[in-house]
């Protein structure tokens, strides 16, 4: 009988120990799960922004110095940002003259903030309206070189068009929101212009 009581007491002690170990490990496991979830949503949003920047630079390179090219690029960026990213979290879109490495050349950039409204005319009187405002205009469509032989001393060959999207990502969970709430990042892409002449 005494042996039976001792075995029973040890069995209850083991059950209590397992419960305490579980209680101690649960917060760590939950933090890992929340961290993985936040990281995967962040990377998915970043990939959407990167795709939008790449698509925008390709359209900018195809449009060259055609009036309305920037609006077409902005519209494409706007439509490419899909869930879990949200286009209302775009801060700015820069369309700039780029070197072969994707770095901006001088101050040659058009900076568009996602506020207000911009309407452009292009292609036979067609118009397009995008929810952006031009805040810095140092690389307007008319000065871009889309001629293989170059456009004078300042543009010795075809321009390379870069598009950089600055995006503010908002964390999903309350735990991550307490550590700052948002993170802002920029993703860019550059494409050499298509020769028109």
Indicate the topology.
Layout: H1 2-63, H2 69-80, E1 90-98, E2 104-113, E3 118-122, E4 126-130, E5 133-137, E6 160-170, H3 174-177, E7 182-192
Antiparallel strand pairs: 1-2, 1-6, 2-5, 3-4, 6-7
User: How many discrete structural domains?
Assistant: 1
Rg, please?
A: 27 Å
Low-confidence parts, pLDDT < 50 over ≥5 residues?
Answer: none
Oligomeric assembly:
single chain
What is the 3D shape? elongated
Strand content: 25-35%
Mean pLDDT: 87
Strand order of the largest sheet: 5-2-1-6-7
Question: N- to C-terminal separation?
Answer: 102 Å
> What is the count of helical runs?
3
> Which range best describes the helical content: under 10%, 10-25%, 25-40%, 40-55%, 55-70% or over 70%?
25-40%
Structure description:
By secondary structure, the protein is α+β, with helices and mostly antiparallel strands. It has one domain. Helix content is 40%, strand content 28%. The protein has three helices and seven strands. Strands 5-2-1-6-7 form a five-stranded antiparallel sheet. Strands 3-4 form a two-stranded antiparallel sheet. A hairpin with a 3-residue loop joins strand 3 and strand 4. It is elongated, with a radius of gyration of 27 Å. The mean pLDDT is 87.
Task: Briefly characterize the structure.
This protein is of the alpha+beta class and 197 residues long. It is 40% helix and 28% strand. The chain has a 5-stranded antiparallel beta sheet. A two-stranded antiparallel ribbon has the order 3-4.
